[in-house]
Specification:
Shape: elongated
Number of strands: 10
Strand content: 5-15%
Strand order of the largest sheet: 6-7-8-3-9-10
Number of domains: 2
Order of helices and strands: HHHHHHHHHHEEEHEEHEHHHHEHEEEHH
Structural class: alpha/beta
Radius of gyration: 34 Å
Largest sheet: 6 strands, mixed
CATH architecture of the largest domain: Up-down Bundle
Number of helices: 19
CATH class of the largest domain: Mainly Alpha
Helix content: 55-70%
Distance between the termini: 60 Å
Mean pLDDT: 82
Low-confidence stretches: none
Length: about 600
């Protein structure tokens, strides 16, 4: 599969070219207005000096008119940015979200959530914000250049002095920019790490409280906050120190220019109007090198943010999912593994400071599956059991193509899963995991995510078959009840059944249950077991079971040890011949009895 390199800023600039052109036009008007205000003010002062009061009034009326126009034009600029700039930010973010769905699960597991959130949320804001700032900088740079030319026309001696002081200032600015570029990436990394831990802390709030991890997480957040502050301080303090030094030097040099102007005025070489123009524009002249610096800072920031977003599109550090071209109109649901080997790999990513190229180095690898072989017939229900770390969930991830085998073949209806297209796989497989994500929507809206055009009859049937109807009927708003972020208003069993209802609506040929009952009580487990039993014979059901009591009625069970299938058979068959399986089931029943006694 060819790398997706479709992220180009020009795409968005072209889409909003009309707004951008009008935005620049308004900015030019503001610039022209701001150039003339000090000139007309200086002329008014000169008119008063020579008792030309009527002319002075006219000039001041023009100044007031232009000032009012400047306020309105500036307001129009804000309106344009808020209306169209935010749309552009939204478009970039939306494309980043769409691209994130193409990134492989292995890449997600090897990167922090903060890296994705920062690129999707913060970088588009920075790009558009800096583009707007660049228009402002260019406007001010052009304005100052016009002023310098005007000063030259008024008096070439003062003009040469202004150019000389600007050259000195620009040298200092170039040093500042080098420091800024060097410190920006480490600051971004520190911010990503902080965003990631804060995001995880918010999501795991209950676990943190119930396991007494508040202080530990507080210390971790504190460490990352301090590191973020340290890197930001390093970035902005160095930048600000050099900027302050630059401004202080400019103040001294401009004072010298003003003194020179007074000397020339005393000799009759400069009029009071010329002096007033120079005096009025001294702020713009002083800001010239700062605007140059800000302009290149904006370029550096945009370049850095574009580079970070492009990493999501380039299939290097963030590897993309890869699919084949074989399309199956109807998947029957046969699954086969042939000598499948999978190793969990941990990579280290380093970016070259000069070339900006990312190098990927294998840091560690662990054998998870070792030449696994099995075949599952269509519309049968099978389970994988074994101790933690035996490779159960990895098998499910390989079936759903969340992971890819290092060697061997994973076949769906006799076709290598690597050759199947995305449409075939995604429309044929549903996954219900241990902690299904329920969105902050109503129950009905959560169901419609699975099938947008589902009829009320289909939704009603899915609710009934997933044993949710009795619960929904107790709710004041029924199916329109909003369940909160991550389904926080629902119990674990209710979330599981809602996830199963979504899978039922999709009516896929293969449905996978990954540890779906491990965290539920016996009552909730029984409901989930009944839901799964309702699916038997309608789809190929693959279950990873933590609790063996939930898989008594499956057609076949594969028993794993250290990445190998060591036994296979029905529940009764394994209970009789496999000592380890029997011990696991006996221990599970004993634990249930102890819990019942404690509750009693």
């Amino acid at each position: 599969m060819k790398s997706d390199r479709n992220f180009k800023l020009s795409k968005y600039l072209k889409k909003y070219s009309g707004w951008i052109s009008f935005y620049i036009f308004v900015f030019v008007l503001v610039t022209v207005v701001d150039v003339f205000i000090p000139i007309l003010t200086a002329n008014a002062v000169e008119d008063i000096t020579f008792n030309e009061y009527r002319s002075a009034i006219y000039n001041l009326l023009f100044v007031i008119g232009l000032s009012i126009a400047s306020y309105f034009l500036s307001g129009l600029l804000n309106f344009l940015y808020n209306r169209y700039g935010m749309r552009m930010i939204g478009d970039i973010s939306l494309d980043c979200v769409a691209q994130s769905f193409k990134i492989s699960s292995q890449s997600y597991s090897s990167h922090s959530s903060g890296q994705f959130m920062d690129r999707i949320v913060n970088d588009p804001n920075r790009i558009v914000g800096e583009l707007s700032s660049m228009v402002f900088m260019i406007s001010n740079i052009v304005t100052t250049l016009i002023i310098i030319i005007y000063v030259f026309i008024l008096n070439y001696i003062i003009g040469l002095c202004v150019v000389a002081l600007l050259i000195v200032s620009l040298i200092i600015t170039s040093v500042r920019l080098k420091k800024f570029n060097k410190n920006m990436q480490s600051s971004d990394k520190a911010r990503e790490n902080l965003v990631s831990i804060v995001n995880e802390t918010i999501k795991s709030e209950k676990d943190i409280k119930t396991t007494g991890l508040e202080q530990k997480l507080k210390d971790t957040v504190n460490d990352r906050t301090n590191n973020n502050v340290k890197e930001k301080y390093k970035l902005y303090n160095t930048n600000q120190t050099l900027r302050l030094f630059n401004n202080a030097l400019l103040e001294v040099l401009l004072l010298g220019v003003l003194i020179l102007g007074i000397v020339l005025m005393e000799k009759g070489l400069v009029t009071i109007a010329i002096f007033m123009v120079i005096y009025s524009y001294r702020g713009s002249i002083k800001s010239f090198s700062n605007f140059i610096g800000f302009f290149f800072e904006s370029i550096a920031t945009i370049k850095n943010s574009l580079g970070r977003i492009r990493e999501l599109f380039e299939d290097k550090e963030y590897e993309l999912e890869k699919f084949g071209n074989v399309h199956l109109d109807k998947v029957q649901g046969e699954i086969e593994f042939k000598d499948v080997i999978f190793k969990y790999k941990e990579f280290e990513y380093k970016k070259d400071k000069k070339t900006k190229a990312t190098t990927k180095t294998l840091k560690n690898e662990t054998q998870v599956l070792d030449k696994i072989n099995f075949k599952i017939q269509p519309n049968t229900t099978v389970a994988f059991v074994g101790k933690s770390g035996s490779g159960k969930s990895t098998i499910l991830s390989l079936i759903s193509k969340m992971l890819e085998a290092d060697d061997g073949q994973v076949l769906i209806d006799g076709v290598d899963i690597k050759d199947l297209d995305k449409d075939t796989l995604r429309k044929s497989i549903s996954l219900v995991n241990q902690f299904p994500y329920i969105f902050d929507m109503s129950i009905k809206e959560n169901l419609l995510l699975a099938k947008e055009n589902a009829t009320d009859e289909e939704i009603e049937k899915a609710i009934k078959d997933s044993y949710l109807k009795e619960f929904i009927d107790t709710l004041p708003n029924g199916i329109d009840t909003v369940v909160g972020e991550s389904g926080i208003k629902l119990s674990g069993g209710q979330r599981q059944r809602l996830a199963i209802a979504r899978a039922l609506l999709r009516q896929t040929s293969i449905i996978i249950f990954d540890e779906s009952t491990s965290s539920l009580d016996n009552f909730a487990q029984e409901h989930i077991k009944k839901c799964i039993d309702n699916l038997k014979g309608k789809s190929t059901i693959v279950i990873v079971a933590h609790r063996l009591s939930t898989i008594k009625n499956v057609d076949d069970i594969f028993f794993l040890e250290e990445g190998k299938i060591v036994d296979e058979g029905s529940f009764d068959k394994l209970f009789k011949k496999n000592k380890e399986f029997k011990n696991m089931f006996t221990m599970e029943n004993l634990q249930d009895e102890l819990k019942q006694q404690e509750n009693a």
